[in-house]
């Protein structure tokens, strides 16, 4: 079995009496050793029952077994010491700042293209590029107001950015509910450990959204816009609206009049200033994008172009989180900020390049291959875990459309002890912190830790059977 960094133990094994426990896990491990198996099992059952009652589910499209599933929750937390978090936070703020500058640049001066750092066709032929945004000024030059950056740990414990999610990043509700559940099940742990709080995220989000209201609006009306109850992340849309104390709306609840967006209410039309939208660009305005969309608001783009409503995230942010653009983010940081990246990318082969394609085709059994527009763990090949037939299928895809794929080495992702059917065993994890950009860049200490529950699996996505853990950032 490949060696991997274990978050809890220094020897990479599951927690046993003989393993060397890392310093920041010692208090928790001492507590865990004093708990009976029956107590832990009872608490796990209580968590499942509560999540089901509250309706914390995730819809899986095309799932014949049912439209909604409970995301498995593990009661062993992922713990990060203060010094490590400080490094991560510094790197995340740097990265998101550069990404926002990049998006502004490509829709205005295009300096990064003129400098020859990114080929023009990588921008203009990208499916997520929106020519309609060319020349549009947005408040504070912020495009990705909410970013979910996927972080993995490999090697001797080095952090890497695996992916930037800038369109409609999801998962923050599970971060909040996981923490609430742990505090409910094990209040004594929070009395014994100095764990940084995350429950103020909705307040931070609302303050952030209000800070980017159109010019001249002093008391902005903020709404959360959802595609509706059949969307896979509908629970989160409703949860965040409720937590922020704002209206949850669908496209049919909004209309445009006098170059202004209004919300229908029982007291008559009410102006809307900031829309935290949780649906993709294509569906926002049937007059500008997909004419068959019944989810959007006719005329929304014209109001947006006039600077009379703020959309979070902005239209056209997807070009910066596309996997074909990902390899250039370290160059963006150097170009826009004149700084060295604090967080490294995973080494990436761009299959549109002849030499990278040749290398990828020669090493498919050892690589992870991803569609540049893919998401959710779909459209990818994990070479070491794939059959010969699957590898040959991807070989044909790569040869037919090389510019549609990137490849990366198969990282031995770090693991955290996790409750499984036969006890406690290491399972691979990642981390999605949420970075808010407005007048300032801010984030709560923590994020959503996702765990691949199948032994040996590296795919943590909930749509692919992954679970979640509470993430503890220890305060000094």
TrEMBL record:
This is Circularly permuted type 2 ATP-grasp protein. It comes from the Bacteria. The lineage of its organism: Bacteria, Pseudomonadati, Pseudomonadota, Betaproteobacteria, Burkholderiales. SUPFAM superfamilies: Glutathione synthetase ATP-binding domain-like (SSF56059). PANTHER family: BLR5612 PROTEIN (PTHR34595), SLL1039 PROTEIN (PTHR34595:SF7). Residues 77-452 form the Circularly permuted ATP-grasp type domain. Pfam families: CP_ATPgrasp_2.
């Amino acid at each position: 079995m490949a060696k991997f960094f274990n978050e809890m133990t220094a020897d990479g094994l599951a927690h046993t009496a003989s393993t060397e426990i890392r310093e920041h896990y010692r208090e928790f491990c001492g507590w865990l050793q004093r708990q009976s198996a029956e107590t832990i099992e009872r608490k796990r059952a209580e968590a499942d029952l509560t999540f089901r009652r509250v309706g914390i589910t995730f819809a899986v499209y095309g799932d014949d077994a049912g439209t909604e599933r409970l995301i498995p929750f593990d009661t062993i937390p992922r713990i990060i010491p203060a010094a490590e978090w400080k490094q991560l936070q510094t790197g995340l703020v740097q990265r998101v700042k550069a990404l926002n500058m990049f998006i502004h640049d490509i829709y205005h001066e295009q300096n990064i293209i003129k400098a020859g750092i990114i080929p023009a066709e990588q921008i203009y032929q990208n499916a997520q590029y929106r020519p309609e945004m060319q020349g549009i000024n947005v408040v504070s030059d912020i495009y990705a107001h909410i970013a979910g950056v996927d972080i993995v740990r490999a090697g001797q414990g080095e952090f890497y950015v695996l992916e930037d999610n800038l369109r409609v990043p999801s998962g923050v509700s599970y971060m909040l509910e996981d923490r609430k559940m742990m505090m409910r099940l094990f209040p004594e742990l929070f009395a014994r450990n100095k764990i940084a709080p995350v429950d103020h995220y909705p307040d931070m989000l609302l303050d952030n959204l209000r800070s980017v209201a159109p010019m001249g609006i002093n008391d902005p009306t903020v709404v959360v816009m959802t595609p509706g109850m059949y969307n896979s992340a509908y629970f989160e849309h409703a949860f965040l609206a409720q937590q922020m104390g704002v209206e949850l709306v669908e496209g049919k609840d909004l209309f445009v009049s006098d170059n202004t967006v209004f919300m229908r209410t029982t007291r008559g039309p009410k102006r809307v200033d900031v829309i935290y939208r949780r649906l993709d660009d294509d569906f926002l305005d049937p007059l500008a994008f997909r004419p068959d969309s019944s989810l959007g608001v006719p005329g929304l783009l014209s109001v947006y172009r006039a600077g009379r409503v703020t959309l979070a995230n902005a239209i056209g942010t997807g070009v910066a989180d596309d996997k074909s653009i990902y390899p250039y983010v370290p160059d963006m940081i150097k170009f826009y900020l004149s700084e060295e990246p604090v967080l490294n990318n995973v080494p990436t082969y761009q299959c549109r390049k002849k030499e990278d394609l040749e290398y990828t085709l020669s090493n498919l059994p050892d690589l992870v291959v991803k569609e540049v527009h893919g998401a959710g763990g779909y459209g990818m090949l994990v070479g070491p875990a794939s059959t010969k037939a699957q590898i040959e299928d991807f070989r044909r895809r790569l040869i037919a459309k090389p510019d549609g794929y990137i490849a990366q080495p198969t990282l031995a992702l770090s693991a955290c002890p996790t409750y499984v059917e036969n006890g406690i065993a290491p399972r691979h994890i990642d981390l999605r912190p949420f970075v808010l950009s407005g007048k300032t860049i801010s984030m709560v200490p923590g994020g959503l830790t996702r765990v691949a529950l199948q032994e040996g699996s590296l795919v943590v996505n909930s749509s692919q059977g992954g679970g979640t853990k509470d993430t503890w950032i220890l305060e000094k």
